[in-house]
Amino acid sequence: MITHCTVVFVLWSAVSNESREFLRKSHEWPLIDVSQLNPNLYEQVERLKTSRVRRSRLLLVIVLTTDSIVFAIRSTLFQLNKQ
């Protein structure tokens, strides 16, 4: 299960060089890891609980979509190799 996630979408021309560099370096780690501060917060705060569930669902969608794309590419390549 995912315990933390930070997603950053940036229009590269819309931020300063310093901000861009910060975002580039920090986009893979959370600014605050709630599970380290207090793991019980996910159960106590409804919005955190909801965000955790949504992140898990999003990850599942990404994995399933990626698998579907890979399957489609493999099928297409297989069909092309048969011709």
What average pLDDT do the residues reach? Answer: 76
Specify the number of helices: 4
Radius of gyration: 19 Å
Structural class by SSE content: mainly alpha
User: Which percent band covers the strand fraction?
Assistant: under 5%
| Order of helical and strand elements | HHHH
Quaternary class: single chain
The helix content, as a percent range, equals 55-70%
Instruction: List unreliable stretches of 5+ residues.
Output: 1-12
Structure description:
The chain is built from four helices and no strands. The termini are far apart. It has one domain (12-82). Helix content is 66%, strand content 0%. The model is unreliable at 1-12 (pLDDT under 50).
Q: Layout of helices and strands, plus pairs?
A:
Blueprint lengths: L16 H10 L7 H4 L3 H4 L1 H37 L1
Structure described in brief:
This protein is mainly α and 83 residues long. 66% of the residues lie in helices and 0% in strands.
Features:
disordered N terminus, 83 residues, flat, mainly alpha
